[in-house]
Write a structure and sequence with these properties.
This protein has about 350 residues and is α+β, with helices and mostly antiparallel strands. The chain has helices at about 1-25, 35-65, 70-80, 90-105, 110-180, 180-210, 215-250, 280-285, and strands at about 300-305, 320-325, 335-340, 345-350, 350-355. Strands 4-3-2-1-5 form a 5-stranded antiparallel β-sheet, with no helix packed on it. The N and C termini lie far apart (about 105 Å).
Length: about 350
């Protein structure tokens, strides 16, 4: 117990003396051993590497797992050295909901069968996302975390030790200057030589660790390339799955190509046409200038929403205006021919209220 008390008192004395020494250095009242320019550059580069690695690591975590609650849960499991329980991705959850809804609506109905197709696609998208998350965590996040929790802690420890050695060296220099008697000077000179040796040895150890930052950059570059490869593969898989889904939906009955948007939120009817199928504007061989209104069958229509023409074959609309509309053989049921004065063009049915 006495040993511990004496050690505590000695540590307190060292801490107090170093605090005084720091203050005197800041005020310019004490000598300070300066490190060479190369060493200072190594320190600056190490600090820069640590700061940016930490920011990149944190933001990559947010990218891979936007839910902060889930990130905290994973962190706690990791600290407890326990395996994180499997968590379904959002795509997999959506897939489950769609498949269950299809059972309720009937898998033989157009809506139910489409829900099954889309749900299966969402399941595959969710699986691809899971593989991407696992791959990115192993190939990119883990190396960054290992640097922050391993190499950087070692560097920080050695830097603190170097700072202590510098303070001891400067304290020995100060004692040598104050020594008057020959014996005191001899003792101070011996202490100074020992402190200088310890400082030089610690500076060399710290310098080697700081120069290792170059190897860290090379390793992080390799990990970054692997992250990009994993991301590219993930997006390619998603694109492939969506193309396959659109091909399947392109073979769906015409009854599925209806506008199911709620009132008050109009959508361009062309958005409901499968990607691989030609749009109504492409399939119609009609020349707008040559279209003539039928002898009977024209109607007045009130425009519900503003609409900007997509090309020269369409007619731009403004809400609340009245136009004359009619259909011609071969036209898609989602479109009509609209006339306003001398202007004529195709207009989407969903933007109109037909008047009797």
């Amino acid at each position: 117990m006495d040993f511990n008390v004496r050690k505590l008192a000695a540590d307190a004395g060292i801490f107090f003396s170093r605090a005084v020494q720091f203050t005197e250095e800041k005020l310019g009242q004490a000598e300070k051993t300066e490190l060479d320019t190369h060493f200072e550059n190594l320190l600056s580069r190490a600090d820069c590497t640590k700061n940016w690695t930490e920011k990149i690591y944190r933001q990559t975590e947010v990218l891979l797992q936007p839910n902060p609650g889930a990130r905290i849960e994973e962190f706690l499991y990791e600290k407890l050295d326990r395996k994180v329980p499997p968590r379904p991705t959002n795509g997999e959850i959506l897939s489950q909901f769609m498949l269950e809804a299809a059972k309720e609506f009937g898998p033989g109905t157009p809506y139910g069968s489409t829900l099954i197709k889309v749900g299966d696609c969402q399941r595959r998208l969710g699986g691809a996302e899971r593989e991407f998350l696992q791959s990115s965590s192993i190939s990119f996040l883990t190396p960054l975390r290992n640097f922050l929790e391993g190499d950087w802690r070692t560097i920080s420890k050695e830097r603190r030790l170097l700072e202590n050695r510098r303070l001891d060296l400067d304290a020995c220099k100060a004692r040598l200057k104050k020594a008057k008697a020959a014996e005191a000077k001899a003792t101070a000179e011996h202490e100074l030589r020992v402190a200088q040796t310890e400082f030089d040895r610690q500076a060399e150890v710290t310098r080697l660790l700081l120069e290792g930052i170059s190897s860290t950059h090379v390793n992080h570059l390799r990990c970054l390339c692997e992250f990009v490869e994993a991301q590219a593969m993930y997006y390619n898989q998603c694109h492939k799955y969506m193309q396959e889904l659109q091909k399947e939906l392109g073979r769906c009955p015409d009854s599925l190509e209806v506008n199911c948007q709620p009132a008050g939120s109009p959508t361009d009817p062309s958005a409901f046409v499968p990607l691989n199928s030609p749009s109504p504007l492409e399939t119609d061989a009609l020349q707008i200038e040559e279209v003539q209104p039928p002898a009977s069958g024209t109607r007045k229509a009130k425009v519900l929403y503003d609409y900007d023409a997509g090309d020269s074959s369409e007619l731009s609309l403004r809400a609340d205006e009245l136009i004359t509309v009619y259909t011609v053989p071969g036209m898609d049921s989602d479109w009509l021919i609209g006339e306003r004065g001398n202007l004529k063009g195709k207009v989407p049915v969903t933007y109109l209220e037909l008047l009797s």
